[in-house]
């Protein structure tokens, strides 16, 4: 793995443009929603029969039940190891569950036909607050760029309506309602909350412009820390300072607390001394405000020895001027709860990942508070709570000043931490509903893959959130495809353990890998402009179907692919890496029979098309290599190139009869379904509108993912350093810096084979 060199993304997305396919009038059997054909009769004009499949393993195949065992190390320590081992039959041959084969083929069919997502948000959101593992009904959260912090307005909760859950807020907007202050005729952004440094912290970088006088001026650091508890009212003095980076480039202004009143007699020890006179604009103004701490208050667990590990300062919320009272409606309140719960989920994920404690983030105050509740979820806001508010653009005048008329001020989001997580505008479910890709909710809404492979409708909920029974096809429909037992006698099982690269769960919040525009391309505010992260998961965007482009480097050689077993920095330990005790080697052959009943001409044609590897190749690659093949994927480690399979119909392997022909056989008592079914050339079932479909984004993307790339460049994830660089934004606007904010390359179009690169 070479950082900052051109590469292809290991995870990408295939557009799902159901509306486009339907508008163009492609085959209704493949692209329209309708009721599934029943199993009560064999229709005259539908086909039944079998397909003999020959599946050749082209990249090592890893699958099986994952388990844990305890191993004694050379130093005598016991270590738990996670492992997987391919299952075997009693005779020692490979055992492949037929459902794996069926799932692989159904995904390909689903992709070709722009079908609905057949698995999506299966676990209901029982609490209406905390998202379960498979629930997509709540907006995802993300960490925004630092520039967004300057747009935040500190606020204090006045009250919460017990019925509506609307939140009344006082905006603690700071020195003034203006968001900028003129310094030598130049307007500069000003941070509204005052910065309260920890005099005892050792985390201050050398480039900061203030110094601490521990022994001389700050008389009692411990006393100061004890006093400034979260929500504590304090009198303080502060100086307006210019924030300078290490390169002496001024970016914004902020109030630096210089004195804090410790007790009733008015003792004012100096907290900070400004190192150079030119660093401040206004010196020693007096204010009153509320202490805002990111770190928990003094507890037995955290002991309050630091305000927050790794932080330079906490905040004081204040205002100088008239009160501004505004209301945040219930959806904004709910969004706040979701953000807090996202911190809880992140903590859980870190614990489950077995990362060393030193590598785990310290839980913040809101996380600790939420974890102590009965259901381990965020409580509602209450009077006296301190939050940050995001105001709409209409809440400011042309000069960036908060308007005086509170009725014009609109709160669009509440967040618990200044540089923390924010909520996307739309949840995956919201986008999926508008895109019409949610699983069918009734018999008349089944897409092609639902009708051919079957579906189950999740139970509906009544007002009391109790399951509601439904009947008939509104519950489920049995598919028209079945897979026989798989013959693994020609499989080569390698019993040489391999430590796999960390198989991490996908993170949809990394939205650039999962979203498309309505035309199937990368979301852009306008052509040639990189979209801000804040604008992802917005109305009008589409969900893409996850794709893992084939690693062509993994298709050759005798060794296990290097990229599938390479070290991964901090994740290089047995707790986060899976050991494959055995795996299926290249050139292994699996054989099975796919049986189908009551398929239409077009449904059978689409099935034949995805089972023909020559079809799964981009036109540009096919023209250079007449023998090029594309591959379906199965098993673990697909992002690392594992599990690429050549799946094809065996020679003379398509057997089919129409319902009318079967009826005549039954009438004459000379045949039945499955007995002496005639061989039918696959050419008898051409894909309808194939020429036009080959020009569509989802088909081209499917082909590119199935074929991969022919330029010998790495197919991989971004490294941590590359991802950090890619997320860099402009301090003034929050827009991605030049060459940053890169999304995976579109898998379709003339540039689908072009690599991406994050500049150093």
Which characteristics define this entry?
five-stranded antiparallel beta sheet, alpha+beta, 760 residues, 24% strand
Query: What is the first-to-last residue Cα distance?
Result: 15 Å
Major sheet summary line: 6 strands, antiparallel
Choose one word for the global shape.
elongated
What's the pLDDT, averaged over the residues? Answer: 85
Task: Please bin the fraction of helical residues.
Answer: 10-25%
**Total domain modules:** 3
Low-confidence stretches: 123-134, 203-219, 299-305, 462-467
Number of separate helices: 14
Q: What portion of the residues fall into strands of 2 or more residues?
A: 15-25%
Radius of gyration: 31 Å
- Which structural class fits the helix and strand makeup? alpha+beta
Q: What is the number of E strands?
A: 38
Structural summary, described in words:
With about 750 residues, the protein is α+β, with helices and mostly antiparallel strands. The protein has three domains: about 10-120 and about 480-725, no CATH class; about 140-150 and about 325-425, no CATH class; about 180-325, no CATH class. Helices cover about 15% and strands about 25% of the residues. It is built from 14 helices and 38 strands. Strands 3, 26, 27, 35, 36 and 37 form a six-stranded antiparallel β-sheet that branches. The chain has a five-stranded antiparallel β-sheet with strand order 18-8-7-19-20. α5 (about 330-355) packs across α6 (about 365-370). The two termini are about 15 Å apart.
């Amino acid at each position: 793995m070479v950082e900052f060199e051109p590469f292809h993304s290991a995870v990408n997305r295939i557009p799902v443009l159901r509306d486009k396919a339907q508008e163009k009038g492609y085959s209704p059997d493949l692209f329209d929603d309708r009721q599934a054909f029943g199993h009560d009769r064999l229709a005259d004009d539908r086909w039944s029969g079998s397909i003999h499949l020959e599946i050749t393993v082209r990249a090592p195949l890893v699958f099986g039940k994952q388990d844990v065992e305890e191993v004694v190390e050379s130093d005598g320590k016991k270590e738990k190891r996670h492992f997987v081992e391919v299952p075997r039959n009693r005779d020692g041959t490979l055992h492949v569950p037929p459902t794996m084969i069926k799932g692989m083929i159904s995904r390909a069919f689903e992709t070709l036909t722009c079908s609905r997502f057949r698995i999506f948000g299966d676990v209901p959101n029982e609490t209406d607050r905390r998202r379960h593992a498979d629930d997509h009904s709540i907006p995802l959260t993300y960490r925004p760029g630092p520039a967004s912090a300057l747009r935040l307005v500190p606020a204090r909760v006045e009250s919460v309506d017990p019925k509506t859950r609307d939140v009344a807020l006082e905006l603690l907007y700071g020195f003034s309602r203006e968001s900028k202050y003129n310094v030598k005729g130049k307007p500069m952004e000003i941070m509204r909350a005052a910065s309260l440094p920890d005099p005892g912290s050792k985390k201050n970088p050398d480039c900061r412009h203030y110094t601490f006088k521990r022994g001389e001026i700050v008389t009692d650091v411990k006393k100061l820390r004890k006093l400034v508890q979260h929500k504590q009212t304090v009198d303080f003095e502060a100086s307006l300072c210019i924030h300078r980076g290490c390169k002496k480039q001024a970016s914004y202004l902020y109030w630096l607390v210089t004195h804090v009143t410790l007790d009733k007699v008015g003792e004012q020890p100096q907290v900070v001394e400004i190192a150079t006179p030119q660093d401040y604009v206004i010196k020693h103004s007096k204010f009153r405000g509320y202490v805002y701490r990111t770190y928990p208050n003094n507890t037995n667990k955290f002991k309050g020895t630091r305000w927050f590990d790794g932080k330079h300062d906490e905040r004081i919320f204040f205002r100088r001027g008239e009160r501004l009272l505004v209301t945040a409606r219930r959806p904004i309140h709910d969004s706040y709860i979701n953000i807090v719960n996202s911190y809880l989920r992140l903590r859980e994920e870190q614990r489950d990942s077995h990362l060393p404690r030193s590598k785990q983030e310290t839980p913040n105050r809101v996380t600790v508070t939420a974890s102590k509740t009965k259901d381990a979820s965020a409580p509602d806001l209450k009077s006296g709570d301190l939050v940050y508010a995001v105001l709409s653009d209409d809440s400011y005048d042309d000069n960036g000043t908060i308007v005086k008329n509170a009725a014009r001020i609109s709160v669009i989001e509440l967040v618990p931490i200044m540089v923390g997580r924010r909520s996307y505008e739309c949840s995956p479910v919201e986008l999926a509903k508008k895109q019409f890709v949610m699983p069918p909710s009734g018999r008349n809404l089944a897409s092609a893959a639902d009708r051919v492979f079957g579906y189950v409708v999740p139970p509906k909920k009544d007002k009391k959130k109790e399951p509601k029974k439904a009947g008939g096809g509104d519950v489920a429909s049995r598919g028209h495809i079945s897979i026989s037992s798989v013959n693994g006698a020609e499989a080569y099982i390698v019993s040489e353990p391999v430590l796999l690269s960390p198989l991490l769960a996908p993170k949809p919040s990394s939205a650039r890998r999962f979203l498309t525009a309505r035309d199937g391309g990368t979301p852009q505010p306008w052509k040639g402009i990189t979209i801000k992260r804040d604008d992802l998961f917005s109305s009008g965007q589409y969900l893409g179907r996850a794709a893992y482009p084939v690693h062509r480097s993994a298709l050759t050689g005798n060794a296990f692919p290097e990229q599938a077993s390479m070290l991964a920095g901090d994740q290089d330990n047995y707790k986060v890496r899976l050991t494959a005790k055995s795996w299926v080697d290249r050139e292994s052959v699996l054989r099975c029979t796919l049986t189908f009943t009551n398929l239409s001409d077009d449904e059978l044609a689409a099935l034949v098309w995805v089972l023909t590897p020559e079809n799964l190749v981009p036109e540009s690659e096919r023209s250079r290599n007449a023998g090029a093949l594309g591959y379906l994927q199965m098993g673990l480690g697909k992002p690392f190139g594992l599990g690429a399979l050549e799946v094809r119909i065996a020679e003379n392997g398509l057997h089919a009869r129409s319902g009318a022909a079967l009826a005549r056989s039954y009438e004459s008592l000379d045949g039945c379904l499955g007995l002496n079914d005639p061989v039918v050339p696959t050419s008898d079932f051409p894909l309808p509108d194939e020429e036009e479909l080959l020009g569509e984004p989802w088909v081209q993307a499917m082909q590119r993912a199935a074929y991969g790339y022919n330029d010998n460049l790495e197919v991989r994830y971004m490294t941590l350093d590359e991802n950090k660089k890619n997320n860099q934004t402009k301090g003034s606007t929050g827009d991605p810096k030049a060459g940053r904010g890169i999304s995976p390359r579109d898998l379709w179009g003339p540039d689908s084979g072009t690599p991406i690169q994050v500049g150093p």
